[in-house]
Amino acid sequence: MKKRIIVINQVVGYLFIDIVNALAERYEEVVLIAGYISFIHKSFKSNVKTIKMFRYSKKSILTRFISWFIGFWQIFFILKFRYYKEKIILSSNPPLNTILPLFIKNQCSFI
Whole-angstrom Cα distance, residue 71 to residue 87? Predict the structure, then answer.
């Protein structure tokens, strides 16, 4: 069993909960960095740790950009100073995640 993997998504729904739980069967610890998690009829396995980030806001185009920008910088600092050696799985939300591998040394995969 592999040690730890970091999974990042600003908004987590049912399908993403299934993905995280499937990863939890292969890794000793799964760290999920998320702004919002929808828990209706589903929950995480015991070896899943969650870290809150800035929640995505759909109120206007400006609030979307602000929530993406703040979320990106939160993720950047968490990865740069806390999880700088772990493998990472990124979603495209916040959209700025696509440029994150340019600034960190972690091995990254995208969903």
Answer: 19
